[in-house]
Amino acid sequence: MRLARSTSGRWGFDFEDLASHLLSSLGYKIVNENFDVECTDPSHHKQSHEIDIIADFFSENFVRPLDSPEGRVLFECKIGEVKLTDVEEAENKLKCLNNCGKFGVLSGAIIMTNSRPKVKIKDNIFCWDMRKLFFYASKVFHFKRLQRKGAFTFREQRLEHFSYTTFIPSFETDKNIFVFMIFHEDEENPLNKLIIEETWATIQIKYANFWKAYSNIEARIEAHSLSGFTRDIESSVLIINGINIYVENALDYSTAPWSVLLGV
């Protein structure tokens, strides 16, 4: 995801447009965007609230992002530091939108920002900083890349006993190569070999019919992690259940200098 400055030198509308495109690519259906809603609470001390995006999640390819509310969601695009007042403003907007009754029931909000939040985000309000925006954009990009190659793609699956998403995309029948991606959303615990082993075991069970039809299976992993990796998967080849698993790409979103790359 690349942000481009507008001719006026501000990020605002460019960021909102790109955010809307990313959400649509992830599987969110935009209900409404860029409008005002009447303020129904006198304690907010304003006549109306500016709303960026309201969306529902309906995806044929992806599971709902881990850090997101279920149901209908308010998305706020914020350039610069996310402050406590931004979180409170999102809460106020949710309240007035739900009081309005024209847009159904909104369960929570996501603040999309080009900075790292320094305030505590509340239970039904999440923050997607630049790392997460690139993380989710990368998921979309690689899925489309495999589709363009003509690979047979499966819908993304989440393994409930881990706080990460696994993406099982393709089977290249001409080479007997099974490619799968892990998108590790846990921001505290790095991706480790145990997670890959359990993921691979699940894949073997879930797609057992494929193994019956093909011999000399070779597996390749593209691993994406918000919290980096442990040393046990830094090797380019893992041997799990007698199958060579090649770690082709290991993208660490916890250390990537996005601010430098973007010039922000």
Written description of the protein model:
This protein has 264 residues and is α/β, with parallel strands linked by helices. The protein folds into two domains: 12-128, Trna Endonuclease, Chain: A, domain 1; 136-259. The protein is built from six helices and eleven strands. The strands form two sheets. The chain has a six-stranded mixed sheet with strand order 6-7-8-9-11-10. It has a five-stranded mixed sheet with strand order 1-2-3-4-5, sandwiched between helices. A hairpin with a 6-residue loop joins strand 6 (157-158) and strand 7. Helix 1 (12-26) crosses helix 3. Mean pLDDT is 77; it is low at 1-11 and 257-264.
Write the element-wise H/E pattern from the N-terminal end onward.
Answer: HEEEHEEHEEEHHEEEH
Tally of helical segments: 6
Helix and strand composition category: alpha/beta
State the major sheet: 6 strands, mixed
What would you call the shape? elongated
Percentage of residues in helical conformation? 25-40%
Mean pLDDT comes to 77
- The end-to-end span amounts to 14 Å
| Rg of Cα set | 21 Å
Spatial order of the strands forming the largest sheet: 6-7-8-9-11-10
Number of domains: 2
How many distinct beta strands?
Answer: 11
Strand content: 25-35%
- Enumerate the spans where pLDDT stays under 50 for 5 or more consecutive residues: 1-11, 257-264
